[in-house]
Every structure is written in C-alpha cells, then in structure tokens.
C-alpha cells in the first residue's frame, strides 16, 4: 500500500483528537499531549493502534515512548511511511 504522506498531519490530528475527545482544530501541532485533560496511557495506545491501522505501518516502541507533541507523532508517522515505502 502506498500511503499519501501529505495527508499525515490531517489524519493523525483527527485520530488523536477523536481519542482525546477534542476537535482537530483545538490541537496545535506543538500541543503537549500529556497535558491534555483526559489523556492517559490507554488512549495513547489506542491512538497508536488506529494510526498504524490507517497507514498499514508498525511503529516501534522506541519511536513512540518518547513522543510528547502532536508534531512529533506526525513526524514519526511520516518516517515510518517513508521507511515502509523505501
């Protein structure tokens, strides 16, 4: 499957927002996801699973454990897509 990397910011933001019960427009790319009210480890795991499913990729644990901002998540997903396509 060839994923369209240009849709990563929008799609990842939509997935993250849905899991956190927010609107996509309420999350800036620099948003510290740990500081969003209601964020917990279970929601993070669900976010990761939905992102992996959406792009048919597998994110490595070491890639996701240090992520704090929405922008970091978007960057890691873009790298994983490029790695899988390369």
Automatic annotation (TrEMBL):
InterPro entries listed in its UniProt record: ACP-like_sf (IPR036736), PP-bd_ACP (IPR009081)
Carrier domain ranges (all copies): 3-81
SUPFAM superfamilies reported in the protein's UniProt record: ACP-like
One Pfam assignment: PP-binding
The protein, known as: Acyl carrier protein
Organism this protein belongs to: Amycolatopsis acidicola
Classification lineage: Bacteria, Bacillati, Actinomycetota, Actinomycetes, Pseudonocardiales
